[in-house]
Design a protein that fits this description.
alpha/beta; 10% strand; 11 helices; 47% helix
Length: 238
């Protein structure tokens, strides 16, 4: 389970008890996030995919895995799904195309971080990643905030540069994915529509689709029960 950029493994805390009866779970703090080492140099999605493979090797996991990736984690999954690393791929809120407007907003937010620190960016990112209800719910917003503030200011800047600003359009690569795939879309995410998610799934051979209302990017945090039902049904059909 690999979370979105700017969050850490805690964003899966509500999903873990629901899935733990079905799989042995490995919850990841990505490079520069949570309890992983802070980033000191920039990287990219390919570098994150190599880190994921090194992680699996380090844990002695030799068999293909069921990958659940949210946003950043979904983009890493798109890379890993082209070989025998994965058994299945669940990509949550991971548009394969880029969004210039969001990139401009993030660049502006990072400029604020450089001057004022991390705090002011929390609200900006919460609007992008959580629904209005999620932002208003104190436990949900608190879990998001804690995961974000676990990262150092430098790691936030380098993670944004590496895994968001350097991310490229990978729609041309999706046909190379060779594992059963489920594309999940939180319908409150206005800048990535259900129709766009359908179009992404159509590029992956045999991919399935799920829409979950009441969530934006962090579906595992906002709608864990609904997400679990889709994942278990997907696994059962493979």
């Amino acid at each position: 389970l690999w979370p979105s950029v700017f969050t850490d493994g805690r964003s899966f805390d509500r999903l873990v008890p629901l899935l733990s009866a079905h799989r042995r779970l490995v919850v990841v703090d990505p490079p520069g996030h949570g309890r992983s080492d802070p980033m000191t140099v920039a990287s990219d999605i390919d570098g994150a995919a190599r880190a994921a493979q090194e992680l699996l090797d380090g844990l002695g996991i030799r068999e293909p895995v069921d990958w659940i990736g949210e946003a950043f984690g979904g983009h890493v999954g798109y890379k890993l799904g082209r070989d025998r690393t994965l058994r299945t791929l669940v990509a949550i809120g991971a548009p394969p195309e880029t969004n210039p407007k969001l990139l401009r907003t993030l660049r502006a937010g990072l400029a604020v971080v450089a001057v004022l620190g991390r705090g002011p960016l929390v609200t900006v990112l919460a609007r992008a990643q959580l629904s209005a209800a999620g932002q208003a719910d104190a436990p949900t917003f608190g879990e998001f905030r804690e995961g974000f503030l676990a990262n150092t200011r430098r790691s936030i800047r380098l993670a944004a540069e590496s895994f968001v600003l350097r991310r490229v359009d990978v729609r041309s690569e999706l046909a190379s994915i060779r594992v059963p795939t489920l594309i999940v879309h939180g319908t409150d995410r206005a800048e990535w529509s259900s129709e766009s998610a359908d179009a992404a799934a159509a590029l992956i051979p045999g991919a399935e689709r799920a829409d979950i209302p009441g969530a934006r990017t962090l579906v595992a945090l906002e709608r864990p029960a609904a997400l679990t039902r889709f994942i278990i049904d997907f696994w059962a059909g493979v």
